[in-house]
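Ticket reopened. Same input as before:
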Amino acid sequence: MRTSGDVESLFPRLEPLLSRVSKPIQYVGGELNSRSKDWQSVAVRWALMYPDAYEVGLPNQGVQILYEVINERADALAERTYSVWPDLEALLREHGIGQFTVDSHRPVAAFDLLGVSFSTELGFTNLLVALDLAGIPLHSVDRDESHPIVIAGGHAAFNPEPIAAFIDAAVLGDGEQAVGAITDVVRDAKDDGASRVELLERLASTGGVYVPGFYDVDYRPDGRIAAVRPNRPGVPERVVKHTIMDLDEWPYPRTPLVPLAESVHERMSVEIFRGCTRGCRFCQAGMITRPVRERSIEGIGRMVEQGLRATGFEEVGLLSLSSADHSEIGEIAKQLADRYEDDKVSLSLPSTRVDAFNIDLANEFSRNGRRSGLTFAPEGGSERLRRVINKMVSKDDLIRTVTAAYSQGWRQVKLYFMCGLPTETDEDVLEIAEMAHDVIRAGRAATGSRDIRCTVSIGGFVPKPHTPFQWAAQADPETVDSRLRKLREAINADRSLGRNVGMRYHDGEPSLVEGLLSRGDRRVAAVIERVWRDGGRFDGWSEHFSFARWMTACANAGVDIGWYTTRERSADEVLPWDHLDSGLDKQWLWDDWQDALAEFEQDDCRWTPCFDCGVCATMGTDIQVGPTGRRLLPLLARPTSGVTVVDGATSS
Amino acid sequence: MVQRIRLRYAKRGRLRFTSHRDFARAFERALRRAEIPMAYSAGFSPHPKISYVGASPTGVASEAEYLEIGLARRVDPQAVRRELDAALPPGLDITEAVEAGPGSLAERMHAARWRIEFDAPAPEVAAALAALLATSQALVERRTKDGRKLVDARAAILAATVVDPGNGPEGHQRAIMDAVVRLTTPAIRPDDVLAALAAVGGLARTVPARAVRLAQGPLDGSGGVSDPLALDRAMGVGPVGTGVREDATQLDEANS
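Engineering reply: fixed in the latest deploy. New output:
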C-alpha cells in the first residue's frame, strides 16, 4: 500500500518544457470546475485516465462523472491524467519526468489506484505508454505494494482479456456506485495493512471486480479456449456488471469541466437516458448497457440549468444511445427550447432515428439557429441487410423523412452506414448509391433547387463481444475496400446526382486491428506489447496508426490475426469473455444471431412484451421509462450576493 | 449598444500557456456565466461585441492585456469586473474596468514593457544585450502559418536594462531584463528578442527564460509606458448603471 508521505508537484520541472511542445495549455490543468484536494487529507487517491489526447479525453462523460463522485467524498481524491503527445513524451523521457496528473501535477505512480476508461480498444497501446512513463511495471505480476492498482473500465473493459496482463482489475458497467465500493475496500485494506494480493482478493470477493490474475485460461489443441477458471477460493466463477437504477439520484457531472484548450465537444452534455433496447445487433453499447433507464424531465431540466450556470457553455447536447426514444422527448425539446430561446443557448440531439417526428424535434432545437445539417443512420444499404442487423428503416421512411427535412429548410442530410456487415454482398452496399441518388432527387423535388447536399459516411463493421454478432466473421480489409471503391463508382456513375453526394470513409485496415483487440484473448497481449515497443501509440489517429507495425508484431508473436477476426465462431466455442456477465443470456444472443442470418427482426421490449434477453432477470433490474406527464421544474433563484450596484452604492 | 467598458486582465502562472483563441473562448463563456448584458452584432449568427487589443503570445505571462465589451444595458464597471473575474478560472484575472471614453483603445497602444527573467549570470545577459543594442538591425526568423519570415528585433527596442536580482530559490544565477518595445506590425515578441540575443549577443539559446508583459500603452515623455485607461478614467463616468442582473437589482432594491 501507498504510504502517506506528501508528494511533490512535478510542475516546476515540467514548466520549462512546455514552451517547446504543441498546445501546452492541455497539460496545465486549472480548468473551471477542476479540483485539487489536499493530498494528506484523504485516505484513498485515484488517478483517472482517459487514454487518448486531452482534447478527446477531457469531454469524456465517464471520467468527469467519476472525478466528481470521488472528489465529493471526504476520504478520497481524484485527479485526471491523459495521454501526452509524442513531442512531450520525448521531453519527459529526456528529463526523467513521469506521467503526471493535470490537476496537481502529481506523479501517477504515487496514487493508490489508476483507473483507466476505455471507450475503444485502440487506446490499449496508450495504456502501456502511460504505465511505462509512470514507472509502473508493465505487467501486473511485477507490481508490488508500492505501485497503484491499475483498474480498467468503460465499454472496452467488457472484454479486458487482451490487456489482462497489464491491468490488475477491471470493472464492468456503471461506475458511479462501483468506485465508491472500491474506495471503501481500498481504504479499509490500507487501515488493516493488507498486502496487495489481499486487497485484490477482497475486491474480487465482492463479485463486481474482475481480477484477471485470479483466473487461469486453458486452451484446446486447436487453439480455442477450453475453460476459464478461478485459481483460488473466494473468487466467483463469473463477474457481473454494475447497474445504477435511478439516474435522478446520480445527476453527474453537476459542474462539468470547462477546458481552456479546444476540445472535440465544445458543449455541455446531459445524459437523458442510459441503455437501449432497439436491439441493433451490431451495437455493443446497446447490448451491454441494458435495461433502459430514463432520467426524468425534471432531472434533465435541473442538470441543464445548473450545468449552464456552472460552465457558460452555449450548447447543450442531450445524450443517449438513441435520444429521440426518450418517452417525453417531445415535451423536453419544446420546454427547453422555450426556456432558452432568448439566451442564445443552442440544444442538440445526437443519435437520432429516421422518422418525421425527428424533424419536428430538430426544428424545435433550431428555432433561433441555422438549419444546416441533419444526420440519419440507416446503417445498412439494403432493406434485407437492415433486417439482418435489426435496424428497421424502410427506404420509403427515409425518403419521406429527408423530403420533410429539405422542405423545412434543412440544407444538408448526412447518412451513416457500415460496410462489412454479416451476410453483406456487393449489391447490398451498392444500394447505398441508389439511396443517395434518391435523396438528392427528393430534395430537389421538395425545394425546387438543384443545390442539395447529401453526405454518405461509412465505417467498417467490427464484431464486438456481448452482441449477437460476437460469433460472426469480420470482413477482411480487401473486401471492404473493394466494396467501397465500387460504391464510389456507382455514386459517380450519374454525374448530375453524384456531384451533390459526398462520400466519407476510412480504409479497412484499422478495423481489422480493432477486431483483433475487441475479440482477442490473453495471447493478444504479446502483440500489443510488441507494437508499443515498436513505437505504436495513438492508434485511433490515422497519422499515428501503422497497419504494418501491427502485422509485424502479430507475425513475431505467432498470432494469426485472421483466426481472431475473419473466423466465424461456432455455438459451442468458449469465448474469451464468457466469464464476464453483461446479463445477456448466451443462448438468447445465439438465437438472435440465428434470427439475423434468417433475416428475422426483433422488437423493442419497451413497447412489446419481454423477449428474455436475460439482463433484467439476472441483474435484478427493470426498464424505467415514462411518460410521467410532468414538466420542467421552475428555474432556481439565482444567488444575489456581491452582485448588485445601484447608483454607485455597493450592497451585497 | 448603450455602454462600452474597457477591461484590463492578467494571464498568470500556469494559465500563461493559454493562447489568445483559448482566452477568447473562456472569456465568452465567462460573459454568459456572469450574465453580463452583452450587446450582440446583427446578422444571421449574432456575436457578442468584444474587441481585443494586441494579445500577448502563448506562453508569455501578462499583467497588461486589454479588451473592450459593448453592453445592451448600463451597468457598473466594478460589478462587471468582479463578476467576470469570479467566472474565469484563477490565473485569468480581470484587474480593472472603466467605462470607455472617447477614441480607440487600440490607437493608444504604442509600446509595451516586458520583464524577462533568465536563468543565467547577469553579466552574461548584459553583455549580450549591449551587443544587440550596439547594432542597428537584428533580423530574426519567425515561423508563421505561411512559412518563415524575417522580422527586425532590434529596431523595436526603445530601451532595455539588465539587473542581477540575486540567486534563485535553487541557488541558480539569474538576470532580469526590463525592456520597452515599440508595438510595431508585426509586433516584436519576447521570443524574437531572445533569438536576437542569441544571434547577435551570443547568449545560449538553451537558457531558460520567462517573460511577462508588465504594461502596454502610450509612451510617456521619459520613455516609459503609461496607463492606456488614464484618459477614460479622467473623463469620469456619467450615472453609474445597475448590477449585472436585473432580477438581482430588484431584490436588492426591495431589501434596502
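The two ends of chain B are 30 Å apart (CA to CA). The helical segments of chain B are 20-33, 77-87, 122-134, 190-199, 230-235, 246-255. Please confirm and we'll close it.
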